[in-house]
Amino acid sequence: MFLRSLNPPKKHSFFLFGPRGVGKSTWLQQIELLHNAHWFNFLDADLEHKIILNPSLFGEMINSLPDSVSWVVVDEVQKIPFVLDEVHRQIEKNKKRFFALTGSSARKLKRGKANLLAGRAFSYHLHPLTFSELGKSFDLKEAMSFGTLPKIFSFEDDSESKKDFLRAYALTYLKEEIQMEGLVRDLTAFRRFLPLAAQENGQILSYTNFARDVGIDSKTIRSYFEIIEDTWLGFTLPAYTRALRKRQVTHPKFYFFDPGVKRALSGELNIELREGSSEYGRAFEHLMLLEIFRYNDYAKKDFRFSYFDTNDVEIDLVVERPGKPILFVEFKSSSQVKEKELRTLQTIVDEIKNSEGLCISRDAVPRKVGNIIVSPYQQALEYIERL
Fold first, then answer.
1. Residue 96 class from Cβ within 10 Å (0-12 exposed, 13-18 middle, 19+ buried)?
2. What is the mean pLDDT of residues 116-128?
């Protein structure tokens, strides 16, 4: 059991969003605040069926609860979006009762124009386990190979079971999030699309190229990426918007939310990540990027992220931090970064006023090369905060 980084409010309703398998329900069950809560689990097909047939039933059930029940948990609220109207009424009616509402998809909430309670409920996001949450259980190569979904750690050193779990996760996503919710018309085309999207993880998006490879139009491809984002399976990283040089790339990159799920979708689980290989380098970059994004979310830092790319300069991550210099970040998976590997980063930091450079690597100790801090990945978040 791992201690998560989220701290729920004690007297305010909240949404808890995140993809399937990150431990939303488990986390809520662990919170002492919710030990006496009344639970509605909309994955219970019988309960879902009854409320859909009789929409007033949900409110009647809440009204029947004793006053001593101060918290109500609604698990997978996107299954029946209209219940949020009743949640709204209940919050207005009873100032001493609060709601914890989980969801693994924003797609159905958006399509149904669901009542998101306009500030009456805070919004949180739960991610796979982070480096700090795992503590001594963190293993870099394992995290790069199989990701950090909580279930992965129940298999200990059983790599084959980890692979089986991740393959099953990918199939479950297709069946329960996509097929059952009717999010796409052509499931076969979406099946062809997903492995290609995973193989292109971290690359600059070209909807036209995807459309050609999958055999459908680029508008549909764009909608497929939106579905992945709406089900929290991935996110886009935009290109840096300030004009620093001519011919800057403007298309976004796309990243999946977990390295293990990415490798399952792309059919790469049986490919060993060997130090020095391009696959190892890309997996290291992916994991480190995810760590930074998760830290920003949990710590509420309001950082803005992008990447920078021209015909001669490419920077993996640009971090805009309120009240601080812009930070250019490069990820190097080597255990001893050479000075020549930092020339691009050094060039852009020298060129851009009020900027700083950070290289996140597997170096044993932090050091400074020119104006660039080279940081072991274990200390990288500290440097991002402190620089």
1. exposed
2. 85
Contacts of residue 15, Cβ cutoff 8 Å, sequence gap at least 6: 77, 101, 102, 103, 116, 117, 121, 122, 123, 124
Determine the Cα–Cα distance for residues 183 and 185; give it in Å rounded to an integer: 7
Q: Where in the chain is the domain with CATH 3.40.50.300?
A: 13-125
pTM surpassing 0.85?
A: yes
- What is the rounded distance in angstroms from the CA atom of residue 291 to the CA atom of residue 301? 14
Instruction: List C-alpha distances in Å: 347 to 304, 325, 352.
Output: 22, 16, 9
Please state, in angstroms and rounded to a whole number, the distance separating the CA atoms of residues 99 and 83. 12
Please answer whether residues 374 and 366 qualify as being in contact, where contact means their C-beta atoms are separated by less than 8 angstroms.
yes
| Ranges assigned E (strand) in 300-387 | 304-309, 314-320, 326-331, 355-361, 367-369, 372-376
Amino acid at 78: Q
- pLDDT tens digits, one per residue of 236-258: 999 998 766 556 778 899 999 99
CATH T-level assignment (fold) for domain 13-125: Rossmann fold (3.40.50)
User: CA 162 to CA 160: how far, in whole Å?
Assistant: 5
| Residue 280 confidence (pLDDT) | 97
Looking at per-residue pLDDT, the higher value among 384 and 151 belongs to 151
Residue 269 CB contacts under 8 Å (≥ 6 apart), including other chains: 145, 163, 166, 167, 260, 263
Mark 6-41 as b/e (b = at least 16 C-beta within 10 Å). bebeeeebbbbbbbbbbbbbebbeebeebeebbebe
The answer, yes or no, to whether residue 366 has pLDDT greater than 70, is: yes
Largest Cα–Cα distance of the chain, in whole Å? 69
Angle between helix axes 187-199 and 207-214 (nearest 10 degrees) is: 130
Paired tokens of 385: 């905060």
Closest-CA residue to 14 (of 65, 74, 64, 104) = 74
